[in-house]
Specification:
Rossmann fold; metal-binding; single chain; 3-stranded parallel β-sheet; magnesium; HAD_sf; two-stranded parallel ribbon
Length: about 130
Amino acid sequence: GLVIDGRTLNIIFQGGLEEKFLELTQHCRSVLCCRSTPLQKSMVVKLIRRQLKAMTLSIGDGANDVSMIQAADVGIGISGQEGMQAVMASDFAISRFKHLKKLLLVHGHWCYARLAKMVIYFFYKNM
């Protein structure tokens, strides 16, 4: 994993070091941005989506995470003390961070199975 702060992201984006940053993120399973602005968070997600053509997942719990959640392919909002802005902008909402495992493994599997059945049914109906 990679943990990066706002100052370092500022240096990366202003210094034209996006390619080096992408090389580093390709070796990571997850990237965690801390102490960064909402614009920096969304720029990281957009950079990963545009250059690496990877599917992105953003998890946030406050109003400062809304732009990052909207920029990602899948956005998860955590309702809590920060308010409901992240939940309103997200694709999925959970009440606590510990429910993330069940959301990804169980509901993700069910969604995949339902989508596969729908595609098969679509071909069946159109033939």
